[in-house]
Amino acid sequence: MGDKVASTIENLQNPDQVSYLSQREAAEIDEILMGPLGFSVDQLMELAGLSVATSIAEVYKSSEYSRVLAICGPGNNGGDGLVAARHLHHFGYKPFVCYPKRTPKALYSGLVTQLESLSIPFLAVEDLPVDLSNDFDILVDAMFGFSFHGAPRPPFDDLIRRLVCLHSHDQTRQRAPVIVSVDIPSGWHVEDGDVGGEGIKPDMLVSLTAPKLCAKKFSGPHHFLGGRFVPPSIAEKYKLRLPPYPGISMCVRIGKPPQVDISALRENYISPVFLEDQLEADPIDQFRKWFDDAVAAGLHEPNAMALSTSDKDGKPSSRMVLLKGVDKEGFVWYTNYESRKGREISENPRASLLFYWDGLNRQVRVEGTVQKVPEEESEKYFHSRPRGSQIGAIVSKQSSIIPGREVLYQEYEDLEAKFSDGNLIPKPKHWGGYRLKPEVVEFWQGQKSRLHDRLQYSLKEINGRQVWKIDRLAP
Questions:
Q1: For 137-195, what is each residue's pLDDT tens digit?
Q2: N or C: which end of the chain has fewer CB within 10 A?
């Protein structure tokens, strides 16, 4: 079953296996969405603009591509650009907006008011530099959508020419701004694409609802689908094959990402300096401060940590587990005592933990000795878990070889029926908690040019007392 799902997803990531809409079909779907299905224009515009912003954030980090110019047309696509600019502002970018043909409609004037309240600058066409390369990192082409007919009129014809010119400059420039087109690259034929071969060549295309036929001619490195509002009735009516959206994301990539030089991947971290006078005297107190920051930042599973163990011969292994408690005695997690990590801890009761909080450019390394938590502590935590998780802990003989997933399902269903009366589920003897008592704790804060801050606590015995010594380590 898993292989079949993986194969389906792989096929849908192939551009040749994704559905493409004609101009007529796209218009019909819009009419259905805003008619019998009850969507309003502003709802669809909000979802579209958010999809554009999240697609941009997926590829172009605000630390490197901060200056964004959204060029907005007179229709709905222009509205998508205005909404995208608002979201990009909240994502940490510095958006500017060029909106030459404003409409008095309340929906659009409301979007303008929202942007003005955020002090997002509006630039007139005549105030734009002739060469857009030096002033902006990202250019959002939100001028014309799939309903556009004919040739672009002033000032949009000139704006399109400026975008076209960006790709005809010589290659001595360090980096030209990237172009992101919303749904249709402006000036392209909705179905035939860049007919004359002299149109905009965007680096990213964000298709909305479903890709239009012209997207088959898109040759840039990044093609995303956004919107996430297509109901099953429309997908069935138009026989749409669309890639599944991952998790809670508002965008999904169509096709495979471009090949990259792994050795060239690097991030120049921008963080506040981390100085000794900011440290708590005890590393557990300092950890709690940073952990609270990770929770407040909304990071996904801030309690996820890499646990590294080794057997009696020193052969190491690592895996991700979840922190379930921290106190002056150490860091607690729960698992199967008969798993590989459990066997290795019994042979060599020393381990290390690594927390990595990407959104804050921080990591914490912990080294120390490990022992089981008291049985009553494990018992109490076990019964605080959802009943499904309790049954799962009994079913899984962690790290042992099984013939197939159906074995797990069957045993789970049997136990679910057995405990359907709501009585207490007994904790298995082979399941419980470990506590790592720290001896070394390092706090790492990423900085520019690899000059990272590394402050390390080491447990030392001084005059018969255990005290924490703090040292700064070279990055």
A1: 999 999 998 888 778 889 999 999 999 988 754 444 456 899 999 999 999 999 999 98
A2: N
* CATH number for the domain that contains residue 364: 2.30.110.10
Options 24, 173, 405, 450, the catalytic residue: 450
| Dist. CA 96–CA 116, nearest whole Å | 11
What are the pLDDT digits (tens) for 77-108? 899 999 999 999 999 999 999 999 999 999 99
- Token pair recorded at residue 201: 């060549």
Are residues 252 and 305 located together in one domain of the fold? no
The pair of structure tokens assigned to 426 is 């007994």
Same domain, 220 and 304: no
| Residue 430 dihedral angles phi and psi, to the nearest 5° | -85, 10
**What type of residue sits at position 468?**
W
Q: Same domain for 385 and 242?
A: no
94 burial type by CB count under 10 A (0-12 exposed, 13-18 middle, 19+ buried) = middle
State which residues form the domain around 146.
Answer: 15-260
Please indicate if the annotation marks 35 as binding a ligand. no
Q: Is 149 annotated as a binding residue?
A: yes
30 is in an annotated binding site: no
Q: Of 207, 231, 260, which one is at a domain's C-terminal end?
A: 260
Residue 450 falls in the annotated catalytic set: yes
Q: How far apart are CA 62 and CA 53, in angstroms?
A: 11
Which of 294, 444, 301 is closest to 359 using CA atoms?
Answer: 294
Give yes or no: residues 256 and 291 share one domain: no
Stated pTM of the model: 0.66
How many domains, in total, are found in the chain?
Answer: 2
